[in-house]
# Entry
Amino acid sequence: MSEMNDEKSGGKPDKGADEVLPKWGSHAVLTLHFPPFPDPDASGDPALAPHDPVRARQVVEELGTVGEVLEQLPERPIGDVPDPEVRADLELVAVGCWGNVVHIVEPALGSDLLTEAMTEEIRRQRERHPQARIVGSLEIDYGNSYCEDVVDLPGGEKAYAGGWDCDDDWEFLGDAEEVLRAIGVDRGPAAEAGFDLDEEPRDRVWSDLGTLAIWGLHSGAGGRQVSVFRVRRTEEAAFHLEEVWFGR
# Structure
């Protein structure tokens, strides 16, 4: 993508044209948790294995948005993975593999309601990994943000919420209460953790439901290491990237 931009500008990068439209903080994240799942009644955070860079490369190579891995960059703490600001950032995919948890930071899974990149990748992952809990979460901020959160459990329980933060007309699918029941978290502890079923669906923090599905009532990824890859996109993913990050 960056090479194409350089050609249009006569070989000199045009910084203005190179900047993505969504604001800093926009992101798309996909997380899988394989059995055994976290015990919601256990005290303390679960012990996770150190990051596995070999498995991380396998994960990124199998993503539907990736045509080829061009370069494997040095590992870094997950908090040091930048949110996309310029075109070159969209070539980067970060993957953390910590035992039975796989965490993927992938801008090509972004959506603005006109694409279904996250939904399609969750379908692919469900076919490949029927035993995993799968959670997708994204926020693309154009001044008003499009948000989407998906929890897809191996037992068939699902919950989906998506819409613009400036609009009350959101789409909700599935049953969040069934999701909580399936992961073994009661309403009270879920509310204390940030996901309150007593609130109206539009007012719930849906990303916290995904956090509960992956991490239970414990902390998340914290400062864990991830591998970062520079990739070549599939034709479809390249089109979606252009639409979401530059198309408005």
